[in-house]
Structures are given as structure tokens and as C-alpha cells.
Amino acid sequence: MPALAVGRIAAGSCVSEAQLELLLGLGRDPGTDEGGFANLAALHRSLDEAVAAAYGWPKSVAQDPEQIVSRLTALNREIVEGGRTYDPFAGAAADRAGELRAGTS
Fold it and tell me: pLDDT averaged over the chain?
């Protein structure tokens, strides 16, 4: 385990598959039990918050997995049942058209 104490595997070190899974899958360092990917977790939180904002949801939804699943399930149901149009690039196309009209591209 000393090979993973700083969150890195030194050349020539021998580690088990379980140690690798722990290091990579959980973002934990088996040598110190410290989060080896704290900044990655922060980036995921930021991304989750940006996605929530894109849907017009409160920021708090991004930190509540049950709310996310519930809201996405309801949104998908609405699309499947024809209650909402699915056009994921409509906003991007409109933004690009506006840029072209304004000459800002």
C-alpha cells in the first residue's frame, strides 16, 4: 500500500486490483484514505449545478440525487408522451443565428 500513499503508483510498484479500483473508482487513496480527486469532485459539483441551471432548476437540485432522478424521469416521460418537444440544439442554433445576425462570430 505505500505505493499509493500519495495517490500515485510508482514505477515498479505492485498493487492489487482492489487497490486500483479503490483509488480510481472511489477517488480515495488506500494509503492515506484521503480523497485523491477532491478537485475532480468539485468539478463534478460545478457541472451538476450548471446542468441544473440549464434546466431552470434550483442549484440545490444538483446535490440531491433523488430530485435529479425524479425530475429527469418526469421530463423524459413528458417528451415520450408528446407533451414536450425534444430539440436539444434549438437554443444553440438560435444563439448562433443571433451571433451571425449581429456579426459577432
Answer: 75
